[in-house]
Specification:
Oligomer: single chain
Structural class: mainly alpha
Mean pLDDT: 90
Order of helices and strands: HHHHHHH
Number of helices: 7
Largest sheet: none
Number of domains: 1
Radius of gyration: 18 Å
Shape: elongated
Low-confidence stretches: none
Strand content: under 5%
Number of strands: 0
Amino acid sequence: MWEWLVELDQQIFRYINGSYLSRFDAFWLFVTRLETWLPLYITFFILLIVKLPKRLNYIASLTVIIATLTAIGITDLVKNAVARLRPNNEPILLDSINILQRPENFSFWSGHTAVSVTVSLLMYLILSKYKKSKMWLLFFIWPLLFATSRIFVGVHYPLDVLVGALVGLFLGVTFYKLLMALFNRLQHST
């Protein structure tokens, strides 16, 4: 069963990585860089400061940071435990895929995806609770592009991205619930 899933994952990876959209190498390299999204990260923290009540914005900002570090830490532990080679390091794929980056660490699951989904979901849940707006849905453009870029640059399989997104959803909801419990406790203590 596992071998069949790995083979299917590699076939889907080859298809996506070799599709027409892979011809936009410069775009995917731009999208996959962390520093590209720095203005968004800054905007997230500014929104928390501006949109949330004074005392809560610091706690919310700290929660986003802790959620990010948690996603990174769990991802690193799992990557080293599973030790799945990235597509760019897989000998049977090297001659048949588009490789734009060559990280040496392991593949499963995508940390870029887990972190971006965690943060985007957490920001969406926090901000939509305090200021109703459909605009917050734009936050999900970031993880969608970020996660997709990981396949196009040749460093993650679709399953890595899918599981990273599921982990991000879980962590985003979990940290939101913890934050709301803390907010409620603080409001009842004053």
